[in-house]
Amino acid sequence: MIITTGVASAILVGGFLLLILIRVPVAFALGIATIPIVLLDIRLTPFIIIDRMFQSYNSFILLAVPFFLLAANLMNSGKITAKLIDLARVLTGWMPGGLGHVNVAVSMLFAGISGSSTADAAGTGKILIPAMVKEGYDPRFSIAITACSSVMGVIIPPSILMVVWGGVMQMSVGALFLAGAIPGLLIGFALMATVYGYAKVYDYPITLKPTFAEFWSAFKGAALAMLTPVLVIGGIVGGIVTPTESAIIAAAYALFLGVFVYRTVTFRDLGAIFYDTGRFASISLFAIGTASAFGWMLAFYNVPRLIVDVMTAGDLGVIGTSLIIAALFLFFGLFIDAIPTIIILGTVLLPVATAAGIEPVAFAIIGIISLAFGLVTPPYGLCLLISAAIGGMNVVSVMKDVCIILTPMLLILLLIIVFPDIALWLPRTLMPMAFQ
Amino acid sequence: MIGRLLETFTQGLRILLAILMASLAIPVSMQVISRYTGIIPTFLWTEELATFIFVWIVMIGAMVAVWDGTHFDVVITPNASSPLGVFVQKSTVHIFVGIFALLFAYYGIEYARIGTIQSSVMMRANLLWTYITVPIAGFVWTVFTAYRLYEAFTTYQISKRAKL
User: Fold this and answer.
1) Given an 8 Å threshold on Cβ–Cβ distance, is A57 in contact with B104?
2) In angstroms, what separates the C-alpha of A27 from chain B's closest C-alpha?
3) Out of A20, A271, A283, closest to residue B61 by CB
4) Residues of A in Cβ contact (< 8 Å) with B122
5) Cβ-nearest to B60 among A19, A70, A282
6) Minimum mean pLDDT among A152-156, A199-203, A334-338, B49-53: which range?
7) Cβ–Cβ below 8 Å for B65 and A252
8) Which pLDDT tens digit goes with each residue over A343-386?
9) Nearest residue of chain A to residue B92 (CA atoms)
10) How many whole angstroms from its chain centre is CA A366?
């Protein structure tokens, strides 16, 4: 038999939702949902699922993902994160709610070096959540601010999600990196304003008023680590290295710092670091394969075209379409990992965005920020799960604080939707050729 | 006994995963070094070798994650409280993953056979070297999920007996 678009969509989407509802792992649910279709439609065979999955791994750009994760793991193991916390402490610890600001500031610094929000939540959370609780901060606030600030990891460049987005949608990763910089910083400042509000309401203390000697010592300690963004972002934007090459340079540099400069990583530790990186990278990347098969099947049944027709018929304009796009990414981000969502939803919505006149780079930033929020929203908020586990609390009990902290961040997203030039100004200025 | 054997096998996979992750850095680093320093000549096969290793990393990591139960899932529905409920909840997941695994193993054999008649562009390596990961992953997932299913059933029986 030949399956119609309506039936195929119902089987794919309905089947997938049903499967995740009964707790089938997301990566497998995406693949399993395609099985009835390939068995029923005479034009398809199960080989297609396997081949689409397999071919999606045949991408040099995706190699950047394990290397950025490796860089982040080396930073956490090599106590580079601790050096960044020392720097953040002298930069922001003097404000009311000191450690809360330190938490945000270190995530901004970490985000500029790594590209992984989960590594940020794990690395900074282990140090800062117990420290905040010890200084009298509410554990729920400590967990929530750690989780929410870690989302900057994928917004401030370099970013694993941007590498995947650029690879999947054939866009300049350098332009995406630059476009994420200002929105990322705005989110950081919004978070700091929220921390300030909390500090005033709950009378949270300052951490320290640094002397110049303390500032200089912290700056010296973190200076070498802070060179990483120059190497990575400068290299890509300058057209000197590819994203994958920049990722290996970041990892090699983190290894050099950990082993030879700070001497906190031994060759014995490396086995565990390599295993942990491979384990986490493969779980994320395996989902790319099944998501590609799922996405290919949606495209085979012309579902993206149908969505484009429906959405363009509504004549919603740039802002209206951007809002719907953000809402869809936010919704999917609740249930699925960001990488498969990019492959399925990103590719489906790209023609919608283009038809509505949204600049592809702005579309990417709206999508990535929306997906980043999914990292702290249950049921599938990895950063929230990690932070809550470190703080030893239930995810539900910290949701009130997460919602409060997310509100100003959502306003920043809204601001970027209404004024996309906030994101586009930097790449247009430094990489005009990416827009030709 | 079987459980211990499978755990030992998975430990071997974990070690292999760490080794592959470390070795992935070699071809990519060679590419960077040759391009920017000229210390070593430009090798065209580095990108291809890196992709080969990458495929193995993804597949081995996916196998280990099935054994460890660390593939990401979404918890929306409440946890079952009765032994039967827990068994049904766990076994449903294992059965679905098992179906996918069987499909991978069965069609993967033919897929790997297609690989034997193809070669990579630069290294001229037989593509069986990477295509073989499909049936291997399918087979390993099948064994792992079958054991986890058996384990869930044993746990259910023990809890039922304890309740009586």
Assistant:
1) no
2) 7
3) A283
4) none
5) A282
6) A334-338
7) no
8) 888 988 998 899 889 999 999 999 999 999 988 988 778 888 88
9) A22
10) 12
Report the chain B residue with the minimal C-alpha distance to residue A68: B25
Which residue has 């099944």 as its token pair?
A: A290
Task: Report pLDDT digits (tens) over A129-149.
Answer: 988 888 888 999 999 999 999
Paired tokens of A418: 């209404």
Yes or no, beta carbons of A57 and B60 under 8 Å apart: no
Domain boundaries, chain B: 2-163
Read off the pLDDT band of A302 (50, 70, 90). confident
Who contacts B130 (Cβ-Cβ below 8 Å, separation ≥6)?
A54, B52, B55, B56, B115
d(CA B65, CA A18): 22
Q: In the numeric block, which tokens belong to residue A188?
A: 């950081």
ipTM for this prediction: 0.93
pLDDT of residue A54: 86
Residue B15 has pLDDT above 80, yes or no: yes
CB contact under 8 A, A380 and B74: yes
The answer to whether A157 and A116 are in contact (CB under 8 A) is: no
Within 8 A by CB and 6+ apart from A289, the residues are: A27, A31, A52, A53, A54, A56, A57, B58
A163 has a pLDDT exceeding 80 = yes
CA distance, residue A324 to nearest chain B CA (Å): 24
Task: Please report which confidence band the pLDDT of residue B107 belongs to, taking 50, 70 and 90 as the band edges.
Answer: very high
What secondary structure letter does DSSP report for A3? -
- Contact criterion met (CB < 8 Å) for B54 and A335: no
A contact residues 92-131, partner B, Cβ 8 Å cutoff: none
Closest chain B residue by Cα to residue A53: B134
Return the number of CB contacts < 8 Å for A and B.
170
Beta bridge partners of B119: B126
CA dihedral A184, A189, A190, A196 (to 10 degrees): 150
Q: What is the pTM of this model?
A: 0.86
Chain A stretch 335-374, residues whose beta carbon is closer than 8 A to a beta carbon of chain B: 335-337
pLDDT band of B156, cuts 50, 70, 90: very high
Nearest residue to A181 via CA among A431, A430, A429, A423: A423
Partner B contacted by A286 (CB < 8 A): yes
- Comparing CA positions, the residue from A345, A341, A349, A344 lying closest to residue A322 is A349
In angstroms, rounded to a whole number, what is the distance separating the alpha carbons of residues A234 and A230? 5
Mutation pick from B60, B64, B72 vs chain A, by most beta carbons of A within 10 Å, is: B72
Residues forming a β-bridge with B126: B119
For A50-110, the DSSP string reads: HHHHHHHT--SGGGHHHHHHHHHHHHHHTTHHHHHHHHHHHHHTTSTTHHHHHHHHHHHHH
Q: What is the pLDDT of residues A385-398, one digit of tens each?
A: 889 888 888 888 89
What count of other Cβ atoms lies within 10 Å of the Cβ of residue B117?
9
Name every chain B residue with its beta carbon within 8 A of the beta carbon of A286.
58-59, 61-62, 65, 71
Residue A205, preceding bond cis, omega within 30 degrees?
no
Give the mean pLDDT of B44-68: 92
